[in-house]
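BUG: 3D viewer hangs when loading the predicted structure for this chain

Environment: internal workstation, default settings.
Expected: structure renders.
Actual: progress bar stalls at 90%.

Input used:
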Amino acid sequence: MNSPLSPSLTPTAATLALAARLQRHPQLEAQVSALLDEVENRAGALNTGDDAEDAIVARTHQIGQHALTGWAEQRHGAVQPTRTPGLRQGGKKNSAGRRPSAPSS
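Structure tokens produced before the viewer hung:
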């Protein structure tokens, strides 16, 4: 039986799907890898809980900023209409409304 501390060496479908998704976003993949390095204290620099908290919170913030930037760029590309050369973009009309009618006598 596998415990959370000794994960199976055989990747699950969810693990493979996550790896494939991260490969489509190389910068995010690098950030997640760096976060895991800090969680595992690979550099050996995180000696106190405060050090670990500061490093992990900062890395999580960076991941969030990168993810939101990527989302915004993708969303912006999806909502921008393709422009046809020669067509004028619509905008506000310059009309002030209806002309007042002549006063009735």
